[in-house]
Amino acid sequence: MRIKPISISLSPNTEQDDILLAFKLLLQPWLWKKGASTLALEQEFTQYIGTEYAYSFNSGRSALFAILRSLGLQQGDEVLLQTFTCNAVPNPVLWAGLKPVYVDCREDDFNINPVDLEKKITPKSRVVIIQHTFGLPADMDRIMEICNRRNIILVEDCAHALGATYKGKKVGTFGEAAFFSFSRDKVISCVYGGMATTNDPVLAENLKKFQETVGYPSLCWIAQQLLHPILMNWIILPTYGLLGKYLLIFFQWLHILSKAVHWKEKRGKMPGYFPRRLPNVLAILAFHQFAKLERFNTHRKQIAALYVKELSNTKYKILDTKYQEGNIFLRFPVVHPNAHEIIKKAWSQNLLIGDWYTTPIAPHDTQLDAVGYSMGSCPIAERLAKITLNLPTHIRISQKDAETIAKFLKSVET
Q1: Which H or E run contains 129?
Q2: What is the pLDDT of residues 143-160, one digit of tens each?
Q3: What is the pTM of this model?
């Protein structure tokens, strides 16, 4: 068994220059909270996405919470969002005093089902959040038509989709607002981080005021994020097959490293470090990654093309990529009746392929009643959660790694 795994997560975007930058910044605490890099990142973001305004926060869910708090909504207003998602989406809805209403997804692209969306709109519906799952843009023409006709605010969840396009236009520019994530396993990463964007000057002013009131995360929390790429790449991953996986748990138990999802979030509650502004030092890391975005996404598409070639004409159901020119393939989803058994077999070989998502609202130990989800309300998402696995496409996955994964999948496809 290989010691260092082929992994879909565990600091996937981090290259050697990112690690060295994090180490350098760890020794410069005067740069941690305030500085010019946060504003520089926001300005660069508006130019790239094509929106007038961008405001950074310490996570994508902080950015979504800021948007919801800035829209002038009333307590108990309904927010429609798709299942086959993470609790990081419904939780900010709950934290803002609003009611999440879950909409089923489509089987062919894992995105929101416009037919079910229309069925679940009520007189109390005010907002719909559209997730571009795995970097595949949702059916924006149909969704915008519904939102315009029913007078509902459209917010885009671009956590998976920085750089993706729909009919030549970047996602994040279709709705009244959008939010992006720079989490540890997203398109670019500064371990924790996010951005809210809009073209609406009134909403922008509200977002700016909200950003100014929430303050920065603690120095301890910032240190956890700076240590993540260092410890993950210099200690944990090189020894993962022997000791590294236990060191990861140990470092998280000691609060030397942060977890991607706090236990409170699995119960619909807000951790104390949300919402906060994006600290300057994490903006430096994000800006450094932002410069690599096009190379990252080009690589993802190349690896996705390899999976298509290798897994076509097998028992695996893969995406029809012919019409998906704007997809950036954050991960490459594959459907198989024995998906979870295959994932376990792969992990035993240190092939850490992905399990987004094993339940309609992830992670698997999220208390569904706490986030307002009722089993049976979104049957397609519930079924897909049982039969979907996803493959890594990030910059540290070589063609050889992808071929190794495809070869393994074909060996266990029966």
Answers
A1: strand 125-131
A2: 999 999 999 999 999 999
A3: 0.97
